[in-house]
Task: structure prediction
Amino acid sequence: MAYSFPEEVLEYVFSFINSDKDRNAVSLVCKSWYEIERWCRRRIFIGNCYAVTPGIMVRRFPEIRSVEIKGKPHFADFNLVPEGWGGYVYPWVVAMSRAYPWLEEIRLKRMVVSDECLELISKSFKNFKVLVMSSCEGFSTDGLASIVANCRNLKELDLRESEVEDLSGHWLSHFPDTCTSLVSLNIACLASEVSFSALERLVSRCPNLKSLQLNRAVPLEKLPNLLRGAPQLVELGTGAYSAELRPELLSNLFDAFTVCKELKGLSGFWDVVPAYLPAIYPVCNGLTSLNLSYATIQSPDISKLISQCQNLERLWVLDYIEDSGLDILATCCKNLEELRVFPSDPYGVEQNVALTEQGLVSVSEGCPKLQSVLYFCRRMSNAALVTIARNRPNLIRFRLCIIEARATDYLTLEPLDAGFGAIVENCRELRRLSLSGLLTDRVFEYIGKHAKKLEMLSIAFAGDGDLGLHHVLSGCESLRKLEIRDSPFGDKALLANAAKLETMRSLWMSSCSVSYGACKLLGQRLPRLNVEVIDERGTPESRPESCPIEKLYIYRTVAGPRFDTPGFIWTMDEEGNTPLGIA
Amino acid sequence: MSSMNNLSESGKSGMNLKETELTLGLPGEPRVGKACMKRVFSETVDLELGNSGKKDSSGSGSSMKKESATSRGKLVGWPPVRAHRKNIMTVKSGKYVKVGVDGAPYLRKVDLELYNSYEQFLSALEGLFTCFKIRTVLDEKKLMDPVNGVEYVPTYEDKDGDWMLVGDVPWKMFAESCKRVRLMTRSEAIGLAPRPETKCSSSSS
Result:
């Protein structure tokens, strides 16, 4: 029985299918579905900018409106990826400027963006609406000026934690007076002062502005007026939250917040003066997201605030909250889904706050919807981890950082294998896990056995040898991203599980025991992977093949070896020849 | 050849200035590692030639900057706290130093961590004190009183208690070692030679 729907019908049906996975599945059904699907795909996500080339993308998908691209490996956040590694977005923008004149959205993460690039974006896409740059670098406020001056329909400009060369705050004044389209503006990462009057006018003439995140340079005195100009805000990041104590400012601020009936998210709070916290009481009950991770206030003040935010779903906070504050969180915030506790003094040797494993245990007991945890602390026990695992089998993300590397269970002085084992055994839906503390190969045995939905695993200072890595690579069926540092994993496990690497997005290993010879072998055996050796000591050819390399980044790709590698990266050749990268 | 590739890291100019730097080594020897670089003057000072106590190792020039796993017992990238979070946290306490100007009735306090360069810092001072403006005289920025032409020389007290001329060392080094700032009028600042017009890159005297 042969039948075919008219193309238009299929296209219409496909327009309801938005997830990448589903779209990819659709395209594999048959040749005609592949064709129809590729013409009507509007949104594309590229998890590794080197996995595919811009040329391949524009050839296959001619009508894209929205692009999201990620560059550097995650460990770049912690200075483990040397300067000059790559992740340049320029070739992508050039290709898109020719192929996608109607492109509307660009979202980038950990990429290098130049001012030239930003200017090209601003001039190439007439209907450009959304620019999100998360943890990017390489551009200055001049580049921002091009964007805001030329993109007439700009809806979102979000600089999320990017490193911007801050020449001045002048760029903001380049928004034309006719611009009323802004929905989201995040300049929290910028240091310079922007013109307050320009900002005030911009904010008050954009009726759809839902999200505004100011930078630290915006003083508290300016906040009431800004809020009055945008009472419809859903998300606000304050600037500096301090001023000398003036009753009129406090009541002015309080009144301004009272008008913000839609506010669901608050962040900012640099340099907090606790006396001004009551100004946000009017909005506390409506808050679902609160980011106090820059607020150096103590536990009693934090607790007072939290106890009023009964609808909180997401809390980011410093460890000043202490166990006592987390107890209060557990009691008051029954809708809590995500908790992140950051260290106030990560490099100090002594414990400076009364925050222990107990705080996390309390929250795991009290908050039935808790699914995502990032927790920095200075001590942990297997018993606590087991309790947490049993309390919260619905955990999806569990990232624990015990500050001292290789710290034991503080009660029994044993490794924390059993504790993390309990986590993976009980939390069947776990997708992301970061380990810390003293760990032997046993924990990896547990992970390989139980963590079947695990997609991302971060390992540091853990394991005894290759067996550990072997457990992970052979057992974790859903693994996409694996990043390892300072762990004694070597050649055997990698070579034995080489094929697994083609099912993953990427593998990062630094300060491990992988030899140059093994890398060459991997490069030979797996032509569809780029095996990149990163070594700042000079070419690995100048050392014996058995010598361990500094860092290794392996990723699957249809693009072949990249051509923008800096001098300290060598891509292993398919033929086992002298690797590419040496002139 | 790989040193040529290293240019792509800096990206900007085509001049391989590193190649022209003096090193200790036979001609044709590869210039690998810090070991063969000629010592910067401030490093030789650290050789305790009669000086008591250890100087702060952060003063010994940018060649020490490169983080290694063993320097000061700190591990690179551990604990895994993101750079912007680190910066925000360190700036929270601020590095407030007193700034006095001769003739001004009271001192001010500025947070050195808010600035990334001498220019930014001096502009901030200009904003704080009404008695001077920054004027450019012969390619140099000077702090001058617009009314009577008096020049102010910026000086600071460093960690060792010595009074130094502002501007000799890289900004970051200055910000770390500065304890207080004083803008002296030119007549008071005898003994401080005017800065030379051209800045030579460091080499021992």
